[in-house]
Amino acid sequence: MTNAALIEELKTLVEPGKVLTDAPSLEAYGKDWTKHFAPAPSAIVFPKSIEQVQAIVRWANQHKVALVPSGGRTGLSAAAVAANGEVVVAFDYMNQILEFNEFDRTVVCQPGVITEQLQNFAEEKGLYYPVDFASAGSSQIGGNIGTNAGGIKVIRYGMTRNWVAGMKVVTGAGDLLELNRDLIKNATGYDMRQLFIGAEGTLGFVVEATMRLDRAPKNLTAMVLGSPDLDSIMPVLHAFQSKLDLTAFEFFSDKAMAKVLARGDVPAPFETDCPFYALLEFEAASEEIANDALATFEHCVEQGWVLDGVMSQSEQQLQNLWKLREYISETISHWTPYKNDISVTVSKVPAFLHDIDAIVESNYPDFEVVWFGHIGDGNLHLNILKPDNLSKDEFFAKCATVNKWVFETVQKYNGSISAEHGVGMTKRDYLGYSRSEPEIAVMRAIKAVFDPNGIMNPGKIFN
């Protein structure tokens, strides 16, 4: 059957107008936020029901057509890039919140529900969905599950997998599975729900998810603290964690903040120039807690770990302080950054940072390097900015040559080459630095069970 005939048959499986093949649509839906690979899908299909997803998967099995899932396309590992003629399955029209249970504090979502949509729904019910990151206004729940998205609140609330009570998935064979049935306690064998979380669509597609909610936090308060060196950041974290239950502890360099301030959207937090900054957040539910925070700040200043700082006194100031951190990714995107999303256990962060910093300084002397990350959970984002005089291909090739040393250091510290962005295509050649050969063999075997014909997002995680 010709490609044109295949597309005509695909059109019969969904509603009229829900298969696109025009060039602008192929370009828009065939990529994510990465710029490493050129999008080249053959078609975009928009299912509106679980039955239509099953029909698409069975059609793909019959004709050996590869499928790539597409959510908000905000990923940073090329897991949602269709670069080899695949059909993109976009979940934009499966975007409804189907059910809310106030006693269980759960919400049943279709995969195309926007993260911010779920956050706003929870707020309307007096509750809270805590998984949060800069792309919350466009990322989708299905994509969050596929990458096990983390973000800025992990130190208190954990990753996406902590908030998935249950889900329905369509496997690579077209079967519909209902996983865990929203239970808190369920000791009936393998928890296949956890296999699909972080699988990047390589086992099947999430078509419905039951997400847990939490109580709404009270009087969230942020502090931005300036530190003289990298070694001071972790003592500050330890000092505050010993006194407060932190909801966030973020880290960024002076170069990162300078890029954000240059936009003119947000003021500097204070006048003192510092090489590194920490942003921490906590619930100031009482005056006593606020006083503990100020006393801890003073202790950190006395120890020389903090040079200056500020604590939010209003909702607006809280938002402005957070913008210093949340606007970094969007701001530096202008420079086509080469991103490394790496992690180690929190106790190893200082030594690990020094080792990585030495590699960066010796190998990228002419490149601008921007550090930031969720340092409170051991996750660091290393961003190397492309000079104007280098082409994208030349720049990425130079960065790739240094990856070996960066990832050897990650391996030395028993860390992860991808803390929260996933593996996709950008990190698949480096998977062996975080996973052993037997582990990878088991992962391949699991994929073969759920996706016997290899049609589900092929070439992602491993070749």
TrEMBL record:
SUPFAM superfamilies per record: FAD-binding/transporter-associated domain-like, FAD-linked oxidases, C-terminal domain
A GO molecular-function annotation: (R)-2-hydroxyglutarate dehydrogenase activity
Example of a GO biological process term: respiratory electron transport chain
Top-level taxon of the source organism: Bacteria
Cofactors named for this entry: FAD
Pfam families xrefs: FAD-oxidase_C, FAD_binding_4
PANTHER family: D-2-HYDROXYGLUTARATE DEHYDROGENASE, MITOCHONDRIAL
Family: Belongs to the FAD-binding oxidoreductase/transferase type 4 family.
Protein's name in the database: D-2-hydroxyglutarate dehydrogenase
